[in-house]
Amino acid sequence: MFMPQSTAPVAVLRSGPLFAGRDFADLRATARQPDDTLSFIPLLLDAAQPDGSWRTTVAALNTDYFLNFYNSHLAAEQGQVALLRYDGSLLISSNLQPAATVYSPALRIQLAQSEAGSFTEQLADGRQLISAYRASRVYPFIIVVRLDRQQVLANWRHEARFAVALVSGILLLLIGMASVYYLRFEKLEARRQRDEEQLRIAAAAFESQEGIFVTDANNNILRVNRAFSTITGYNEAEAVGQTPHLLSSGKHPQAFYDEMWRQLQSCRFWSGEIWNRRKSGDIYPEWLTITAVSDAQDHISHYVATLTDITQRKRAEEEIRNLAYYDPLTRLPNRRLLLERLQQAVGSAGRRGNEGALLFIDLDNFKTLNDTLGHDMGDLLLQDVAQRLNHCVREDDTVARLGGDEFVVLLPNLSKNCDEAAKLALRLGERIRLALNAPYDLAGHDYHSTPSIGIAMFADGQHNGDELMKRADLALYSAKAAGRNAVHFFEPQMQKTLSERASLETALRQAVADGQLRLMYQPQVDQAGNIHGAEVLLRWLHPSLGLLSPDRFIALAEETGLIIPIGQWVLEQACFQLQQFSQQPAMADISLSVNISIKQLRHPDFTRQVQTILSATRAPPQRLVLELTESDLVDDIEGCSHKMAPLRQTGVQFALDDFGTGYSSLAYLKKLPLDQLKVDQSFVRNVMHDQHDAAIVRTVIVLARALNLNVLAEGVETAEQLAFLQQQGCHNYQGYLFAQPLPLTDLIAMKQNQMHTLNRFTLSA
Ligand SMILES: Nc1nc2c(ncn2[C@@H]2O[C@@H]3COP(=O)(O)O[C@H]4[C@@H](O)[C@H](n5cnc6c(=O)[nH]c(N)nc65)O[C@@H]4COP(=O)(O)O[C@H]3[C@H]2O)c(=O)[nH]1
Predict the structure, then answer these.
(1) Using alpha carbons only, what angle is made at residue 335 by residues 332 and 338, rounded to the nearest 5 degrees?
(2) Are strands 211-216 and 13-15 parallel, antiparallel or unpaired?
(3) What residues does the PAS domain cover (predicted)?
(4) 231: exposed, middle or buried (C-beta count within 10 Å: 0-12, 13-18, 19+)?
(5) Bigger pLDDT: 363 or 154?
(6) Which of 82, 84, 311, 636 could form a disulfide with 142 if both were Cys (CB 3.0 to 4.6 A apart)?
């Protein structure tokens, strides 16, 4: 056995190289095979004895002790445990084929620095070895553990992968569970929010503007909302426990409620208008909707009723109805309601054989009242008339206002006997006439008015409402034509007149289009007998009736509005003629007087139309005289004056026709830009026999002169009339004494003849 030699006794433990031998305890050592021999590490310890001598103790350290220990903890492929001596020689190794030299240069360097440590080495084959060492302080050994990093970590990696997989799995499971819980939570939350919202909506709906009450199946009120209390006046405490009978108005018969319940049971729903009673006792209309609520077994468990107070709506409907069917000024039924009632009356009269009557009432001279005292007074009169009419009739009669001053009274049931019915109608017509003749007090103004009344009877149901209205209107016309303040019945002759007028109207429209209108010219002379002008007079050359005078169609043209195109045509012709005259020396000083209808004058564009015609024809404006009728002007002096003024500024002259027949007031004469007064032929006609007419003529002439107006007398037929007029100082004359209305060529011939022969009309001084 080799042991390191000690030169002096030292108390140091020494070891020798490994040797093989038998186990001291092994009695059968001799029987062991060489391979079975044990390895020992010899150990020597020199120890000083009390007597000063040295004693060396020898020990053998069985390497199996180490190897067994390490092999049990470390698999051969994982690494190696080795025991080195300080000189680096290998004592024992757990691995017989170590991967590399144990006492590697790296270990040597490490040992020099520290007695214990660890480091990593890279082998030539690329493997990495992790080495840990410790130099024992007790034994003269260095223990080195070398591990193949790959091998050592193999298990760890395997376990780590397993652990990662496991953890991942668990994590995934947890995430999955969390997701499921999250989704469930979300769903529950959404449902909770939805439920909350529905509860809020239900609460809001319950506390809506509509009154709501809920009853059980036995009709006991369980709940009411605030609006219910507001509408009915009952608070929750007063209503709960009661039945809806609490609200009953008593206005509906039992059959109404029976039907409601029948429908509720069969359809589980009822809605309709109902009259209820508030706590205050007021009865009011409401719209009620009742819905039956069923339980799981489809039995009615509750009733939910909503009620809306429709008082306001009813009022609005009433208002709309009033506006649609009633005249706002007089509160009388209007045309629409009258026609509905008339239709019913005509139908029922036909069925029952009862005779009824329709009375058309028109106030005479109402327009004058409006124009003189103003529309407010006119309105007061209409309201008063409406009241008087209502007092004259029975309850089932209708008094209506058609508009303006036109009233209608419908008497649906007079008598089965037509004579008796006519008598009753006439009696009522007279009563109305007298009632409306009584004086009026219009806001302090005393006023007197008269009506004209036309009556149409109906019995057989053969005439519809429109026809009856036309008949009554015709009778009214007749009453007016007969001098007003009268009651006239419709007669078939009026119908005939009506038909004639209708066909004349059609023909007149055609006449304008077909050029059947003609103009005649009636000369006007001055004091010296010279023709200085002519009045343009219209004729209609009717294809079958021949030449018609204006009396036959002017009124109709005015009523139908045809006077506008006709008047325009006359003006154009006259202006064209004036332009022609201005080119002929003999005719150049002739003026033409054109009759202007009130409808033309009232046309908003009248002034511009005349100006347009003047400039289009290039007629000299100062030769154009526009004749206006006195009675027409009176209605709107201001308006007429405004339209006349611009024309007068351009030279157009204005004559007042038929003067003396109307108001002949100095006041309005002053306001109008007039040039000439025409004394109406009705006065001239009787001037020699009628002192009254003579006085009028005299006054008119004086008035005209005072106002510095030219005065022309028309209808002069005799020399006596002429002499009288001359005496009074009349300036100009027109009449059969000089000439009838003439065709244009005759007028021109007459004028030229007068020029050449100096054959003036001989006027006695
Ligand atoms: N008995 C008699 N009659 C005489 C005498 N001198 C003239 N007359 C007639 O008296 C009417 C005078 O015309 P007016 O007063 O303007 O009355 C005119 C006028 O108001 C209207 N009229 C005529 N032409 C037109 C027109 O173009 N437009 C308009 N709006 N009205 C017209 O028709 C009315 C009647 O016209 P006419 O039938 O042509 O009747 C004319 C004329 O023929 C006479 O000495 N004795």
Answers:
(1) 75
(2) unpaired
(3) 195-254
(4) buried
(5) 363
(6) 84
pLDDT value of residue 657: 87
Q: Is 547 in the pocket of ligand 1 (CB under 6 A)?
A: no
Nearest CA to ligand 1 atom 1: 715
Indicate if ligand 1 lies below 6 Å from the C-beta of 735: yes
Report if pTM > 0.95. no
d(CA 204, CA 227): 12
Separation CA 365–CA 634 (nearest Å): 12
Residue having the nearest C-alpha atom to atom 32 of ligand 1:
595
Distance 684 CA to ligand 1 centre (A): 14
Q: How many Å separate Cα 46 from the centre of its chain? A: 126
Go through the domains of the chain in sequence order and give each one's CATH number: 1-73 (no CATH), 211-315 (3.30.450.20), 326-490 (3.30.70.270), 503-751 (3.20.20.450)
**CA 320 to each of CA 317, 342, 404: distance values in angstroms, whole numbers, following the listed order:** 5, 21, 22
Report residue 423 CA to chain centroid gap: 55
Cross-strand bridge partners of residue 454 = 360, 488
Structure tokens at 386: 């409406």
CA proximity to 459, closest of 417, 429, 499, 491: 417
Query: Mind listing the pLDDT tens digit for each residue in 77-129?
Result: 777 888 888 888 877 777 755 556 778 888 888 888 888 889 888 888 888 88
d(CA 473, CA 469): 6
Tell me which of 455 and 27 has the higher pLDDT. Answer: 455
| Residue 162: per-residue pLDDT | 84
Which atom of ligand 1 is least distant from the CA of 537? 24
> Is residue 130 over pLDDT 60?
yes
Unique residue bearing structure tokens 């002790």:
65
- Long-range contacts (CB closer than 8 Å, 24 or more residues apart) made by 150-154: 151/75, 151/77, 151/78, 151/79, 152/78, 152/79
The residue written with tokens 């027409």 in the block is 632
Nearest CA owner, ligand 1 atom 27: 538
Indicate whether residue 736 lines ligand 1 (CB < 6 A): yes
Q: Which two tokens stand for residue 621?
A: 């404006």
Element (H, E) at 359: strand 355-363
What's the whole-number mean pLDDT along residues 28-51?
64
* Residue 303 and residue 219 in contact, taking contact as beta carbons nearer than 8 Å: yes
Question: Is there an atom of ligand 1 within 6 Å of 538 CB?
Answer: yes
